[in-house]
Write a sequence for this structure.
């Protein structure tokens, strides 16, 4: 992305014209009066007539009632029937027009460019005119449903705005007339949107309205208003209800404005938001990670509240509420896993795809096993016993004063527990007091993980104490269970002492004791009290910290009141008091976060030069003059739990429509994957384990669903969102942001690094001024550093290494040694039963080698696609020549023209010819020439048989006619039998086909000095005992002196050397790079070698090993002994993947967590060769908390801007870098299709105790 100035247009000219056509249509409910082209007058007249039709029919009913010819009910029915007939006529006409035009299948198909389509109108009722005005419905069921609703809406609407009813409400004819006229405008807008043409809503939740839910949105709100009026009509006089009816009749006039501003949510978002709010604040639950879980949890929790209302005994209510509250607060997803019988270590499918190994099965809490079931059962039984006994003996005790009552001691214990838990949690993070001051106790400096852990031991102890105070029941029961499993003869005295500590000091049990002794339980059979205590007993487990805070506030109010009664407050009951305190605290927290976000947008719009637009001064003055209105907008958004929407991220604030905490309607886990996604996939498991520890210690502060965190390590950005929280578990979503940083991404990433450095890289002693958080206004507040197993990525420019003649001269010798080592190792594997292409094959040390994986991949391919993987991957992204001078190098980072189809090289064509799948003969490239891309399936032209006579076959070995078979390929039966002098040499015998290279013996003899005999004997001496066990020295000596075995390996090794074109010393870096990529130029023996897949893979891996040896020796110094070289090659085989980034083996090795990976690349822009090394190690990932309301506000603007304004310009203002708001990163982290994270995990459930 190219960063642009602050005065870039918010909408380009095309989008501006599009917006000003769409917005009037949204305001009026669907009529299109601004088309952008000339249309006949009857198009506008027809729309006006249809728009006013409900008013006409309602006016008929109203007039007949005013003339006392009909009663109000009959007049409303008449209006509804007339509207039903008109709606049916419109739908029939739309269906007829669609059939006439032959486009039934496209009826009602969504098209965002419909406003730009120019329609040719013929007459007022032509099919084109009808389809333009009334497109019709997509589903037949909706035709019937919407038609019926149109009649019902008109009938009830007529009844709702009868002049007699309005006069009775307001007592004034003038006011009634104004309300009557304006109300019918609202009704006409809703009717037109329902039955004629649905306008695009500014409040858009789904990217596509598949089931045509949008037309129901506006009528739904009108029915809500009518329901309140009907309740007032048919109930006994209630002053509050009559007042509400009066207010709603006035608010009814402003519904079109609310719809246009997008404050009222669409139907799907309204239902989800309503269920979530009722579940959290009415029933004590938590927001859920999916819509299905939310629906099920809401239904079950509501059923619990209903059951509590009908249970006659208060003791039964207490026991039932505690048991159901505890069970519903657990991670119920583990129950389904247990029922399926799966005992996988990590239950989440997102991490099963990930690379980090799951926690050990013995790790507590990851699985629902016997220990976990015993723990939960013990906790439940103890809690029920405590509550039952306290309620039975002390629940009915009456006291004149709260201070002297039975709840007083528990109340003081709650106050102490809250202070201790808050203090111990506060000191766990890098900042204290809301991120204002640096924590002097937090470790300074991040030199290494071990040093950080040693400095952090004091905080670990404090965290352990906090966990004991907050979750001691769990810890003590775990201790008891461990004793039971380790020592069956445990003494009863130890158990008694443990349960005493457990019983009197745990905050959940202290809160249960407080609730069980409450006197308002005696008045439980009221709806409010039943709901209140259902929530209270549930939230004790669901969110212990929040419940402790709420209970402390209630206790403080009672202590402040003393012996005085608070009539309005005391009559509510403790359960309702806790509900109101929880709701008030949540809304207050949202208000403060939104206010901070508002101030950040306002201040930075002027102080940040790159954000200062020409209108910045005007907007600031306008906000200052309308400060009360601005505070009202912030307050309203907080009360509705709706995002505060900064229009185009400018200081123009609107109230976004309420939506669930997840902000997006789709399932969690959608992403835009790319090759870099594997790094986030690999680290997700280890990060989840680190987050579990951090959550348990309180290092990341108070955890609430909807909280957002940002992690930073090297070039990786991890976005963490809390989806769900319960007793002992937490559900999160981990997203990975792009690694190829744009300019905007780089600016914000640099500021993120500065914020983290100020928190974690500060000096040992802080002065008074250095103790403040200088980045307090930033959206990011650093919290803690987590130890995570991740890949450290190091990239080096190989100038001076790959182009050094001294290094290149040694490359040939290293290649021969690596090849000999791999050949002998291949024999060892084959002897032990680890066949090269077998799925169960493994390398030295019990790990499957990368060469085995590559060979297996090759062998499993269909015959027509037999080609080594490295060859495909190296040719997939470029079109090159077969000559050295014209070879087009490529880079891992540069892909200028996108993926190109792989060319069928000589090796591929030969392999196909030999397997009988093609009649094409092998052709060679002219030395120094450039091959052209043919039209025949991207095959090299030199491989085509008709071109052979043109001279493109020169360079091939000259053979006599009729003798090609004998010269080029010996039959296996004609090979001389090998007579080994040592019986053990048969183990190291190589396949017969590997000795059939079409090379002259004299040529092999001339290269005989290149074979390292000393290294061969040394390697043979090391592998011999591995095969034969404890072999005597005489047997090993005889094995080394076997001349036949040596000659066999000499022949095979030198044949590979010639076939790869490495018989002379390497002089060109491009040639080395080409061989490393597996793109071998044609040589005399290449066809033979490429047809021996296993041998070809061995030769290719040997060359890659030799280049890695060159790289290491140039960096660390030469190998001093054969023993060191042997150990190095063993390490390469066991702990390294040496290949290309584009190969599947690279991807698999990252997910399998190979300790090291190496790749060679070429930077086309700089003309340099690069080496990339990945090292798996435990590193510190810095994590900070984001302003959740700022994230929700920017996501709300993103949804409005892309789904309604269709402003998908990649250089739009709202996506430009903002160092304070982190605007670009926030947009990236949004769910697709609006955002583009490269990795997104499925909901991860893990324990947090």
């Amino acid at each position: 992305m190219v960063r642009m100035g602050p005065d870039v247009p918010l909408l380009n000219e095309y989008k501006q014209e599009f917006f000003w056509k769409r917005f009037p249509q949204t305001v009026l409910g669907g009529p299109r009066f601004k088309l952008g082209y000339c249309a006949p007058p009857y198009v506008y007249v027809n729309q006006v007539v249809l728009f006013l039709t409900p008013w006409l029919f309602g006016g008929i009913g109203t007039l007949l009632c005013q003339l006392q010819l009909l009663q109000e009910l009959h007049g409303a029915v008449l209006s509804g029937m007339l509207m039903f007939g008109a709606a049916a006529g419109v739908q029939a006409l739309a269906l007829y027009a669609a059939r006439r035009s032959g486009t039934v299948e496209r009826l009602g198909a969504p098209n965002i460019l419909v406003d730009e389509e120019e329609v040719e109108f013929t007459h007022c009722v032509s099919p084109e005119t009808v389809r333009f005005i009334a497109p019709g419905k997509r589903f037949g069921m909706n035709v019937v449903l919407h038609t019926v609703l149109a009649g019902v809406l008109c009938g009830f609407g007529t009844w709702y705005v009868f002049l007699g009813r309005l006069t009775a409400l307001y007592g004034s004819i003038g006011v009634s007339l104004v309300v009557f006229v304006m109300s019918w405008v609202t009704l006409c807008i809703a009717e037109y949107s329902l039955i004629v043409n649905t306008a695009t809503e500014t409040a858009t939740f789904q990217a596509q309205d598949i089931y045509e839910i949008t037309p129901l949105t506006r009528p739904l709100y009108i029915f809500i208003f009518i329901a309140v009026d009907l309740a007032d009509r048919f109930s006994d006089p209630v002053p509050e209800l009559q007042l509400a009816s009066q207010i709603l009749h006035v608010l009814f006039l402003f519904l079109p404005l609310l719809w246009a501003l997008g404050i009222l949510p669409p139907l799907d978002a309204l239902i989800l938001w309503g269920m979530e709010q009722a579940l959290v604040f009415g029933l004590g639950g938590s927001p859920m990670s999916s819509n299905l879980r939310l629906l099920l949890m809401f239904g079950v929790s509501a059923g619990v509240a209903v059951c509590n209302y009908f249970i006659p005994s208060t003791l039964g209510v207490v026991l039932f509420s505690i048991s159901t509250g505890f069970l519903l607060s657990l991670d119920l997803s583990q129950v389904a896993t247990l029922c399926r019988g799966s005992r996988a270590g990590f239950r989440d499918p997102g991490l099963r795809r990930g690379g980090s190994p799951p926690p050990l099965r013995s790790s507590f809490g990851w699985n629902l096993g016997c220990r976990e079931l015993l723990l939960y059962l013990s906790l439940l039984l103890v809690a029920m016993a405590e509550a039952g006994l306290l309620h039975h003996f002390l629940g009915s005790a009456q006291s004149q004063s709260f201070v002297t009552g039975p709840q007083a001691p528990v109340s003081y214990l709650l106050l102490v527990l809250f202070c201790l838990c808050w203090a111990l949690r506060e000191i766990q993070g890098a900042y204290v007091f809301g991120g204002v001051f640096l924590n002097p106790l937090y470790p300074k400096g991040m030199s290494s993980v071990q040093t950080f852990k040693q400095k952090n031991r004091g905080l670990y102890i404090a965290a352990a104490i906090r966990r004991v105070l907050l979750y001691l029941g769990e810890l003590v029961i775990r201790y008891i269970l461990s004793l039971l499993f380790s020592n069956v003869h445990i003494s009863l005295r130890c158990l008694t002492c443990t349960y005493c500590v457990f019983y009197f000091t745990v905050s959940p049990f202290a809160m249960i004791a407080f609730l069980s002794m409450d006197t308002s339980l005696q008045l439980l059979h009221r709806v409010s009290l039943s709901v209140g205590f259902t929530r209270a007993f549930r939230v004790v487990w669901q969110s212990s910290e929040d419940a402790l805070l709420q209970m402390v506030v209630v206790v403080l109010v009672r202590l402040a009141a003393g012996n005085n009664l608070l009539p309005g407050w005391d009559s509510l009951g403790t359960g309702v008091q806790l509900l109101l305190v929880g709701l008030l605290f949540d809304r207050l927290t949202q208000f403060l976060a939104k206010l901070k976000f508002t101030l950040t947008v306002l201040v930075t719009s002027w102080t940040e030069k790159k954000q200062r637009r020409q209108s910045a001064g005007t907007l600031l003055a306008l906000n200052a003059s309308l400060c009360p209105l601005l505070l009202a907008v912030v307050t309203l958004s907080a009360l509705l739990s709706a995002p505060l929407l900064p229009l185009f991220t400018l200081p123009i604030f609107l109230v976004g429509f309420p939506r669930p905490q997840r902000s997006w309607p789709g399932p969690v886990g959608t992403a835009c994957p790319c090759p870099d996604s594997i790094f986030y996939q690999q680290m997700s498991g280890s990060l989840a384990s680190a987050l579990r520890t951090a959550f348990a210690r309180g290092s990341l502060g108070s955890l609430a669903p909807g909280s957002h965190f940002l992690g930073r390590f090297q070039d990786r950005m991890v976005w963490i969102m809390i989806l769900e929280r319960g007793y002992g578990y937490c559900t999160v979503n981990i997203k990975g942001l792009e690694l190829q940083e744009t300019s905007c991404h780089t600016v914000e990433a640099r500021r993120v690094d500065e914020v983290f450095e100020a928190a974690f890289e500060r000096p040992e002693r802080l002065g008074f001024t250095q103790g403040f958080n200088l980045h307090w206004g930033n959206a990011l507040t650093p919290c803690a550093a987590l130890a995570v197993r991740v890949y450290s990525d190091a990239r080096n420019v190989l100038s001076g290494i790959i182009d050094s003649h001294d290094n290149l001269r040694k490359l040939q010798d290293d290649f021969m040694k690596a090849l000999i080592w791999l050949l002998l190792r291949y024999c060892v594997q084959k002897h032990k039963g680890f066949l090269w292409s077998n799925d169960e094959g493994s390398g030295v040390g019990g790990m499957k080698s990368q060469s085995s994986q590559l060979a297996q991949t090759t062998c499993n391919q269909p015959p027509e696609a037999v080609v080594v993987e490295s060859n495909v991957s190296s040719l997939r992204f470029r079109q090159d020549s077969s000559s050295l001078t014209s070879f087009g190098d490529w880079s891992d980072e540069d892909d200028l023209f996108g993926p190109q189809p792989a060319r069928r090289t000589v090796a591929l064509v030969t392999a196909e010819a030999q397997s009988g799948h093609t009649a094409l003969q092998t052709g060679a490239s002219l030395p120094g020439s450039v091959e052209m891309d043919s039209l025949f399936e991207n095959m090299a032209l030199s491989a085509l048989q008709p071109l052979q006579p043109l001279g493109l076959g020169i360079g091939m070995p000259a053979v006599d006619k009729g003798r090609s078979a004998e010269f080029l390929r010996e039959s296996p039966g004609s090979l001389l039998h090998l007579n080994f002098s040592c019986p053990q040499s048969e183990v190291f015998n190589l396949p017969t086909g590997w000795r059939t290279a079409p090379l002259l013996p004299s040529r092999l003899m001339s290269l005989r000095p290149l074979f390292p005999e000393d290294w061969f004997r040394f390697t043979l001496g090391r592998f011999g005992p591995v095969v034969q066990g404890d072999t005597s020295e005489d047997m090993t000596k005889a094995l080394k002196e076997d001349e036949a075995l040596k000659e066999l390996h000499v022949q095979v090794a030198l044949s590979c050397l010639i076939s790869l074109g490495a018989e002379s010393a390497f002089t060109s870096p491009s040639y080395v790079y080409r061989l490393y990529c597996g793109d071998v130029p044609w040589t005399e023996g290449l066809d033979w070698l490429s047809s021996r897949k296993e041998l070809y893979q061995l030769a290719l891996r040997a060359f890659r090993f030799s280049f890695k040896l060159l790289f290491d020796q140039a960096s660390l110094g030469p190998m001093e002994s054969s023993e060191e070289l042997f150990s190095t090659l063993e390490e390469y085989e066991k702990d390294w993947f040496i290949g290309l980034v584009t190969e599947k083996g690279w991807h698999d090795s990252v997910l399998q967590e190979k300790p090291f990976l190496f790749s060679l690349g070429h930077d086309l822009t700089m003309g340099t060769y690069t080496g990339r090394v990945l090292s798996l190690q435990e590193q510190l990932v810095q994590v900070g908390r984001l302003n959740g309301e700022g994230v929700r506000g920017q996501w709300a603007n993103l949804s409005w801007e892309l789904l309604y304004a269709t402003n998908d310009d990649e250089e739009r203002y709202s996506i430009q870098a903002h160092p304070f708001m982190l605007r670009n990163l926030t947009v990236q982290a949004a769910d697709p299709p609006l955002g583009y994270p490269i990795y997104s995990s499925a909901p991860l459930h893990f324990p947090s105790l």
In short: Residues 805-832+977-1172 form one domain. The radius of gyration is 38 Å.
